[in-house]
What does this fold into?
Amino acid sequence: MRFRRLLLGAVGAAAIAAVLPASAQQKQPIEIQFWMGLAGASGELLTKYGNDFNKKQNDYRVVVSFKGQYPEQRAAAVAAFRAGNPPHIMQMFDAGSGDMMSARNAIVPVSEVFKRANLQFNPGDFIGPARGYYGLPNGDLLSMPFNVSTTVLFYNKDAFKKAGLDPDKPPRTWPEVIQAAQQIRKSNAAACGYTTTWLAWVMLEQFSSRHNLPIGTQQSGRGGLNAELTFNTPLHQKMVQTLVDMQKDKSFDYGGRSNDAAAKFISGECAMLTQSSGGLGAIQRDAKFEFGTGQLPYWPEVQGAPYATTIGGASLWVFNAPNRSADEFRGIAMFLDYMRSNEVMVDWAKQTGFLPATNSAFKAMTEEGFFQKNPGRIVPILSLIEGRPGEHTNGYRFGRWTEIRDVYHEEVERALQGRQTPAEALHNAVRRGNALLRAFEKTAG
Amino acid sequence: MQRKVVFSGVALPYALLAPQLAITLVFFFWPAGQALFMSVLQQDPFGARVVFVGLDNFRAVLTDPDYLASFWRTVYFSFAVTVLAMAPALLLAVMADRVVRAAYAYKTTLIIPYAIAPAVAGVLWLFMLNPAVGVLAYLMRTLGIPWNPTLDGTHAMLLVILASAWSQIAYNFLFFLAGLQAIPKSLLEAAAIDGAGGTRRFWTIVFPLLAPTTFFLLVVNIVFAFFNTFGVIHAVTGGGPAKATEILVYKVYYDGVIALDLGSSSAQSVILMAIVIVLTAIQFKYIERRVHY
It folds into this structure.
């Protein structure tokens, strides 16, 4: 009996205590959920930007969460959207853009978000390749480019010296890479000459852009959902054949589909590596040798080559939800405005290997002499602006691209294993990829 | 003498069962129901366009050569994992049973691997066998073996089989040990007096009496190989290279989460559930008869 009274009294007190602070407090800041897909140092930096934004004002509170790598995060966002409560902003990787772009009722174009909030927004400030990738024909942006990267060639200067190659001259063309790799293998300066991370991104997407080849019809998918893939041209086959031939004597050693091959370069096993410019941080921190940076190699017989490379990385998408208020959208716009400011963009580009996504950030970094002090950092930017712009250097827009990348991976792996020719590999990849695009067209059209 | 716990009313037993029933309802029946529901639909990831397609998803899955290849691959994989997880466990249990000195130390050491989550076990083996930085891989290179699970499908399959079986050995060991202790010593002594050697005693007395344990572990191991090995595959090979390690449960994950093809993934999930139900039913019906209690 006494215990029951005590319990009742405690519950009553707790209830009052819960109600009091709420009535005594002023308006709570509106929460903005920002899901990002970067782990490690880059992820911590994004969390820091969220905290900095929160400190600057009291109306909104940005909550930065890591929900797993991009594919898992996207699945979580899909589930959240179906439950009626998606995050406000989500960082989505380049390959997922096609899927997001077709989900017109699920997302709100970034240009629209700024317009609703009456905030000034100039899409022209973002670098050309990013605008082309994430933009609409009328110049509006669907998502806001944030972490932009492109492919660069890292090479082991110490291994080059040992092999008798000039350590200050990175190979510029694929024949030069083949020759350097063979020399490295012959002199045993390293266990393998060349490897690559992100096989499909480098060997299919960036490769096509570098030689101004379309990946598919309808301007590589931008023109409509009925586009077909076309990446089984003789030049694409030649590239795969080169890898197959080089794999035989370890001039090239396959390092997996994503980032694992970077370990082969950092450990000194392979002397050359094509990698995202964002991989610079890990190399700088862990490589125990002197290394240099070069642009993505190209085949010199292609007329007009080298064309510009395209971008990779991720952009920020804004979700739509039935119960989202105008206030929340205003908060989203304010946070995105902060994220594209020089303050954030310059800091981000300096600390990570990602490129400055805005022209003003690039200008600011040039003016303060950053690129003079760090000559390797200008290389990825040069490959975007020095390379000739062509009609097919703006990237692609396909749904189910993550899957199509894996189809490419599987077929090229079979070719590397010697189970099929490169021609068969690419024909199979195109056939399977087209089947996926038709399935996507059915559900998204 | 049989001891049965008797409850005075019905409220308490139901209340005690309630948490487990709630968990089963929420974490099995609800998702299974959702999977069944989604398997007859075709929809875009965000749920904007939902179309009822009847059994089309099932038809597409069952006629897909990739799915059939994955099916046989899973059969091969679970057979390999089960054999590799049960045979050494039995051997170790028999040996550990005979040891008298420091028996506890041996048994504890042999049981510890079970406490490690499958994904962690996978990463452990990956680190040891990673072609670039692995200790065992380095050893193999010096011995002249071209170990390369990144490119060679057979090596990749071997790697995931090893990693999956390794953590299960401890679990099987535990059960076999308990089973061995239940065998009356008098039977073995009588056989020894009659002149039966160690091996003879094992195969004619111990093994048949271990049948209930073996049968139970067979079911558990096969279900483990079908489902719990997802963590290992995801952490170590991601289904590659060239689909060499893509087993059914991984395909369900890939098609659902990565490819966002919810209809196909749900259909595959339903088929997988049906397979395991049938397997378990067959085993209970036919193997149960051979079990001597």
Observations:
- Chain A touches chain B through 39 residues (CB under 8 Å).
- Strands of chain A lie at 30-36, 60-66, 89-93, 107-108, 144-149, 151-156, 192-196, 270-276, 291-295, 312-319.
- Chain A has a mean pLDDT of 90.
